Backbone:
């Protein structure tokens, strides 16, 4: 079982990295992109565990470590293999 | 006065801090490894700069789970003086001893240069010896020093005089885009200070400035 965790900056938090990538794309002639935001992708894998347990462990990991509640939000999907 | 200087894997300003404290009259520094769990012997705690745990995940995010941080939190409740410099500031924020967060500099650059600071509150154990209206000069060296917080937190910081330092124009102003030009903040009780600039690197005229000494001398005054 796998948890796919996506962490992104909250709206309103400046993402200078995304901005820089956005203007690079623009200067390459790839236009019409309004905004680029860069986040993190984290995979957690589990052995012999129920989907419910995997969800609650992932939730706890995000709250306690993976995301900073001041600046970031998270969401995740559990994938059964 | 006994100073604990915390050492994490990746700390790199610990020796600078040790040297500054060692040279002051009546101040006795000791290194304390992050696996220790007791700081009750010390009067003051310095969390130095560096790249604890390689800044993995977010600067300061892993260091917060080191055993020593439990001791830092319990000593902070007793009113002990705690200063976090640069990465130390990031660790204090991740540990929720201070409010807000530090994100990437607004121009995504590692900035290593001199800055000048306005002192916004002279009435603290960290700032009491700074001459009034003097802009103090010291270096910064960081990529994630852009202090950010919600409107509510910023208002609370202003109302309670918890903003210790802001960047001033003398050396070119705000280097990282921080909210309200903030360079350093205090907790509500004013016994915990976090700041991005490095006072320990401005502790001798040969380094270009010794203005950082005001902060350590203030701590010694009690």
Residues:
């Amino acid at each position: 079982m796998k948890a796919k965790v996506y962490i992104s900056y909250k709206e309103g938090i400046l993402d200078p990295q995304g901005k820089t990538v956005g203007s690079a794309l623009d200067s390459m002639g790839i236009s019409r992109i309004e905004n680029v935001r860069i986040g993190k992708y984290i995979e957690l894998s589990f052995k012999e565990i129920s989907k419910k347990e995997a969800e609650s462990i992932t939730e706890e990991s995000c709250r306690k470590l993976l995301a900073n509640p001041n600046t970031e939000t998270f969401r995740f999907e559990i994938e059964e293999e | 006065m006994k100073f604990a200087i915390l050492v994490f894997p990746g700390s790199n300003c610990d020796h600078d801090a040790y040297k500054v404290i060692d040279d002051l009259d009546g101040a006795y520094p000791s290194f304390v490894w992050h696996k220790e769990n007791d700081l009750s012997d010390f009067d003051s705690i310095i969390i130095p700069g560096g790249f604890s745990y390689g800044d993995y995940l977010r600067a300061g995010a892993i260091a917060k789970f080191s055993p020593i941080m439990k001791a830092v939190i319990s000593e902070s409740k007793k009113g002990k003086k705690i200063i976090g410099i640069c990465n130390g500031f990031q660790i204090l924020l991740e540990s929720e001893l201070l409010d807000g967060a530090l994100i990437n500099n607004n121009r995504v650059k590692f900035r290593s240069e001199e800055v000048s600071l306005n002192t916004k509150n002279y009435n603290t154990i960290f700032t009491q010896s700074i001459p009034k209206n003097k802009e103090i000069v010291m270096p910064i060296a960081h990529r994630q020093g852009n202090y950010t917080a919600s409107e509510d937190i910023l208002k609370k910081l202003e109302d309670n005089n918890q903003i210790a330092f802001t960047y001033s124009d003398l050396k070119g102003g705000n280097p990282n885009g921080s909210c309200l030009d903030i360079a350093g903040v205090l907790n509500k009780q004013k016994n915990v200070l976090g700041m991005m600039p490095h006072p320990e690197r401005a502790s001798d005229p040969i380094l270009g400035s010794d203005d950082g000494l005001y902060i350590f001398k203030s701590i010694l005054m009690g």
